[in-house]
Every structure is written in C-alpha cells, then in structure tokens.
Design a protein that fits this description.
heterodimer, A: ABC transporter involved in vitamin B12 uptake, BtuC, two-stranded antiparallel ribbon, B: mainly alpha
Chain lengths: 409, 317
C-alpha cells in the first residue's frame, strides 16, 4: 500500500529506461539528496562532519569502487587500500608540482593513475581465477605500501615520510588543508561522490555492466557468447581502481589531512571489503548502507561510552532496546530463527549493562575499543548468516513487503 | 647495475659460504613455520572449501591463552593441555555458530565469515588478555634456549637451540599429520571429503564431525606455531601477519595440496631470506620480505594457475 507500483505505466522507451522508474524510489532518493545537500550541512556539528558524514561518504565511494570489481565483475580484490593510496599520493604529487591546479580537477585526475596501476595488476586476472587471483591483488597491496615507504620522491623527500595536505584554494575559499572549513570539505566530497555514483549506476546498468555481470556469473559461458573477457575484466579493473583512487584522494585531502604509508595497509582494504559485502555485493545502494553501519557503529558506541555515568544508563539502555528492535525487525523480514537468539543476546547485554551501571562501573576507552572490534566481527558474521546478500537485499525484501502491506499476499 | 643484480650477489654467496649457510638456515626455520600454518589452511580448505583467514589469529589466540593460563598460576604443561581444550571448544563453536548456518553459500561469503571470526577473536582476545605484548613461557616448557656454534669452511654458523627444536618439532608434527591422514579412519575420512563431497557424504561420513576435527587440528597447529613464533618474537597481535605469509605459500603450492603447502613453505621461507639479504638490502632499501612472497607466488601462478601441486582446474559451461 505504501509502496504501490501498480498504475505507474510507462508509455515510452525513455520512461521505461529512466534511472528510477518507480515514483516512490525517486521520491525517497529526493528526500535523501535534500537531506544530504541541504539539511545536514545546515545542522551538523564539526564532530558530526568529521566522524560521520565525511568518512561515511568516502568509505561508501571506496566500497562502490571495490563493488564494481568484486560485486559486478566477480574478481576478488584484497588490495583496495593500496589503490586508495595510489590515488592519494598521485593527488599529492599533482597539487605540489602544479599548485595552480584546481583541487577538484586534481582529485578527479588522481583516479587515472590508480586506474593505470589497477589495470597492470589486473592483467594476471586473465589467467588466474578465484582465490588465486586474490594473491595478485595482495601482491599489489604489499608491494605498493612498501613503495610508498621507500620511494621518497612520492612524499617530496620530507623527513617524516608522510604526506601533508597543503592549504588549497578554489575561488578564494580554502577547500583543503588545515584552514579549510568542514562544510566546504563536506560539499566537495558530496559533489564528487554524487557525480561518481551517477556514473557508476549508469555504467553498471548499461552494456559494460552487463558484460561484467556475465563475466562474473560464468566467464567461460560469457566468452562463448562473444564477450571479450580481456576487455571486460580490464575495464572492470580500470573503472574500479579509478573510483577507489578518487576515494583515496578524498580520504587524505578532505578527511585525514595527512597520511603515512601504513594508513593504506591491509586493514583499510578489509574495512572497505566489509562495507561492500555487508552492504551487498553487486549493488550500488548497499555501499552506503554498509558504510553507515561500519563507520557509524563504532562512533555511536564510543559516544555511549563517553557520556557521563548518570546519562549513560538511560541512553545506553535506549540504544540497546533500539538495536534489539531493529534486529527483531530484520528477523521478521529475513525470516531467520537466528535473530531470536540475537534478540535474547541483546536483552542479556542490556541487563548486564544496567547492572554494571548501578555498580558504578566505568568502561575505559581501551576496553571499548576492543569490544568495538569484537562487536564488528560478530556483526559481520550475524549479517552474513541472516542475509548473505547484504543490507541491500534486506532493503529489497522490506520494499517487497511494503508493496503488499497490510495484506499478506 | 647488471653486475649488482646478476653477478655480485652470487660472488658474495661463494666468497662467504658460512654466511650463506646461516641465511639458508634462518630461511629454513621460518619456512617450516610457514609450511605448518599453510597446512592448517589446506586441511580446512580441502574438507570444506573454506579459505580460512582466521588461521593467523588462531595462532595468536592460542599463544595468548597459553601465556594467560600460565600467568594464572597453572603449571606450564597443564596450561598446554587446557589451551588445547580451549581450541577444541573454539572449533566446536565455530562449526555450530558460523559454519553450519552458512553451508552452501558462495566461497566469498564463507571467506568473509572467517574474516568476521578473525575480528571477533582479536576483540575477544584483547578484551580478556589485554593488548600489550607478552613473553612466551619458553623455559617453563623446557625448550632449550642456548646456541651451538659450528665452523664450516673456517667461518661461523650459529644455530639457536630454539630454532633446532622448532624444526624438529614441526617436522615431527608434519609427519604425524601425514600419518594421521593416511593411516587412520578419521584421516581417510578427511581426505575423502576433500576429494569428493557428495560421495563422502553418501558413504556416511559426517560433515559436522570432520569440520570440528579439521578446525581442531588447525587449532593444534596454531598452538605449536604460536609457541614457536612467540618464543622467537614475543606474543602480540602483530603475530597475525604471519597468516598473510601463509597465503602466498598456499597459492604457490596449490590450495588443495598437502605436499604443496610443505614445499611452498620451505621455498618461500628460504627464497625470501636470500632475496632480502643479497638483493633487497643492497639494491632496494630492505624490508622486501613484506611483498617478495606474494610477487613470487604471482609469477609462478602466471605459468601454473593452479599452483605447483594444485589440482588441474577443469572448467565446463
């Protein structure tokens, strides 16, 4: 009822091929865009920009790049972090060699370099498949990070071995570096991310996207029906690395402000891979959902842990109840008995938490950090079990339910 | 330049054979440990097609549990027994909670699940044992710590007793494993499952039992590796990186092959040491051990996509 698609007739090919053929989808997207472009920048605090909005967008973009390669073209990659690094270092070299260059142009161009390196490391994919291919991307991961450390030309021979983002100006406003305002950085990130998302949606539903999907589903069969595997795989590597590289440039220039080589080490690759898989392989929207979960959750947990004791019990209990409700809802959607156990787990956790509160127990930040890691690991397993196709699939199921709701069939 | 690459390193090797032997020995020691970890991977991969990323963290977890139990005042050898018990519980828990609900999912999902296990164990281990470095209880376990100095070709060759013990124990463990796989009923069941899932199930081999068993064996291997590496470099979460080293070993040897894991481990252990000493440090600024194994595996895979000893990949539409 809420999501009725009946009666929305398409009377021309153009209408049928529209980006969002269902009115409600377009409407929802409009709301989200309005929130992102107008409401958030007006209301968000410095803390929200730096810990939630900007990183979520950047991680979502990186995951989208990985998703094109792994989710759409079916080539497993464990080297995303290093390709982000290539983008970041390329951008750094460009803005320091050509200080007159427009920062947005520099960021968009830096993806070209990572695309080139991505294609080079993608060439083995023509011969090596599946998990064996992961080794090629791991080779890229370890080799490139080593190179960032040893090749001092990349970081302009400075003593620290790290790249430091200079103050960059565009139309008289600082857009990057220590003097830039968070709002400006946010708008730049949002602009680039919106642009590339639009590009990716169109690429994946067009001719190229279909050849990728055919390659993913069975490459021999795809070859037999006349798909050029070399072209398909290498374009996937190129587009994916381009997007990932741009995300890497944004990561350093718009968020971190400085980066040492080990920032791009394998934990970053895995974090992006989690986002892509939790969000849903082979989807665009899933990357955003995954990024919200993986980036947002630790922040929420830290905020809970950081609040004063007397506020904590109420807030903490409220969050736990909300989580339990969310999990129960997911269980209803995914029809999995597993969620019952999870709800019980949350209830027990709430009780323990409440008890600890009454005893005046204070959690220190190191312990919170450790518990965070544990919870994220547990969540990954939990989401894989209730829905291996990720949050995107959950959203699809919710949508199906809403179409016929309140009727059962 | 060409001289530095092609002639000078070999000249160095010949002019100082004792140093070469020292390098080879150290390569052999780390190689045999890589081989051990890779063996744990291979067993799990053969019996369940799961690419077990959690092997590295199991090493850390086993070592931490051992040290933690000993710190509680339990005698060393009883701690070892208790740690084995913990690894068994872990194997059962992983099979029940994670693997059973995920039967039949695509490979990458199972791979991700093992990364989830990795994160969970990191968090769990840090919560319980704390994140700081610990010292392995080498002497309490009766592992010798001195060294023997040999003098071949009039040079010096220092063999740490610890390393000798590691090589002996690891070799014995590998032999014991091979004997177990070849001559016991359980071992044959594991191999049968690795060869053909359907056929193994149809003759009444229990998938669940075998999975618990292989994860337990992986746990035992993790404990031995954890003691060995812990004694050399201390027990910390940095040990996890040796799991990354086992990946190229697997790829080089072939994912399904037990021989491959052993040969690959030794090859990579020795070659990466040689490369680091004779080419990496003089020419490339050192620390090449982080990537050399991967690049070597990549080059080998370009010629043999299934690894040196892997099963030939046959594809049908």
């Amino acid at each position: 009822m809420l999501y009725r698609t009946a009666g929305q007739f398409k009377t021309s090919y153009i209408a049928d091929q529209a980006l969002f053929p269902v009115k409600q989808d377009a409407f929802l997207l409009g709301i989200i865009l309005a929130l992102a472009w107008i409401v958030f920048p007006l209301t968000a605090s410095e803390f929200t920009f730096q810990t939630l909005l900007i990183p979520i967008l950047i991680y979502a973009l990186a995951a989208m790049g990985l998703n094109i390669l792994t989710g759409f073209a079916g080539q497993l990659s464990l080297g995303t972090g290093a390709f982000m690094g290539v983008g970041a270092y390329a951008c750094y070299k460009m803005v320091t060699l050509f200080p007159w260059m427009n920062p947005i142009v520099a960021i968009l161009l830096s993806g070209v370099f990572s695309a080139g390196i991505g294609v080079a490391f993608g060439i083995p994919s023509l011969r090596i498949k599946g998990f064996y291919l992961a080794i090629a991307t791991l080779a890229a991961q370890f080799f490139l990070v080593w190179l960032f450390e040893k090749w001092s030309w990349l970081y302009n021979y400075n003593a620290s071995g790290a790249i430091q983002v200079p103050n960059l100006e565009m139309f008289g406003v600082f857009v990057s570096g220590p003097q830039a305002a968070s709002v400006t950085e946010y708008y730049i990130v949002l602009f680039v991310v919106t642009l590339l998302t639009l590009l990716c949606i169109n690429l994946t539903r067009g001719n190229l996207g279909r050849t990728w999907k055919a390659t993913r589903d069975m490459d021999i069969a795809a070859e037999l029906i006349g798909i050029n595997l070399m072209k398909s795989k290498l374009t996937a590597f190129a587009v994916s690395s381009y997007v990932v590289g741009v995300a890497g440039a944004l990561y350093v220039f718009m968020w971190k402000g400085a980066a040492e080589p080990n920032v791009f080490d394998i934990p970053l690759s895995f974090q992006v891979l989690f986002i892509a898989i939790i969000g849903g392989l082979g989807s665009i929207m899933g990357n955003y959902l995954g990024a919200i979960l993986i980036v947002g959750l630790p922040v929420v947990l830290n905020v809970i842990a950081g609040t004063q004791v007397f506020q904590m019990s109420a807030l903490g209990a409220a969050v736990l109840v909300a989580l339990a409700a969310a999990v129960a809802f997911l269980g209803w959607v995914a029809r999995s008995g597993w969620t019952v156990g999870a709800v019980a787990g949350f209830v027990v956790l709430t009780l323990i938490y409440g008890y600890a509160q009454t005893q005046g127990f204070r959690i220190d930040s190191a312990l919170i950090e450790h518990i965070n890691v544990m919870i994220i690991g547990g969540l990954i397993i939990f989401f894989l079990i209730i829905e291996p196709h990720g949050l995107n699939q959950l959203w699809r199921l919710i949508r199906e339910k809403l179409i016929i709701w309140p009727f059962p069939h | 330049m060409l001289n530095d690459i092609f002639i000078a390193p070999f000249a160095d090797m010949i002019s100082a054979p004792d140093f070469l032997m020292q390098v080879l020995w150290e390569g052999l020691v780390s190689g045999i440990l890589y081989a051990l970890i890779a063996l744990g991977f291979v067993l799990i991969f053969r019996s369940s097609r799961i690419f077990n990323f959690a092997q590295g963290i199991m090493v850390v977890f086993a070592a931490l549990t051992l040290v933690g139990l000993f710190a509680m005042g339990i005698p060393a050898w009883i701690s070892v027994g208790l740690t084995l018990g913990v690894m068994f519980v872990l194997a059962v828990a992983i099979e029940r909670v994670v693997l059973r609900p995920l039967v039949g999912q695509p490979d990458i999902i199972l791979f991700m699940a093992t990364i989830g296990i990795t994160l969970f164990l990191i968090g769990f281990g840090e919560t319980i044992f704390g994140g700081e470095n610990k010292v392995m209880i080498t002497e309490e376990l009766g592992i010798p710590t001195g060294d023997t100095v040999l003098e071949p070709f009039g040079g010096l060759l220092i063999l740490q007793h610890l390393d000798i013990t590691v090589v002996v124990v690891a070799t014995l463990l590998v032999l014991a494993l091979l004997a177990f796989l070849n001559y016991t009923q359980m071992g044959r069941a594991i191999r049968a499952l690795g060869d053909d899932h359907q056929a193994a199930l149809s003759v009444g081999i229990s998938l669940q039992t075998i999975w618990v068993l292989v994860w337990f064996i992986a746990g035992i291997i993790a404990l031995v590796t954890g003691i060995a590496w812990g004694a050399r470099a201390g027990v910390s979460f940095a040990l996890e990186v040796i799991a990354y080293k086992a990946l190229p070993v697997l790829m080089l040897g072939g994912l399904e092959s037990i021989t491959g894991a052993i040969v690959g481990g030794l090859m990579i252990g020795i070659l990466e040491k040689l490369f680091e000493i004779y080419w990496g440090q003089p020419l490339l600024g050192g620390n090449t051990e982080t990537w050399f194994a991967f690049v070597l595996a990549l080059i080998v895979l370009l010629f043999r996509p299934q690894g040196l000893f892997g099963e030939r990949i046959i594809e049908r539409v």
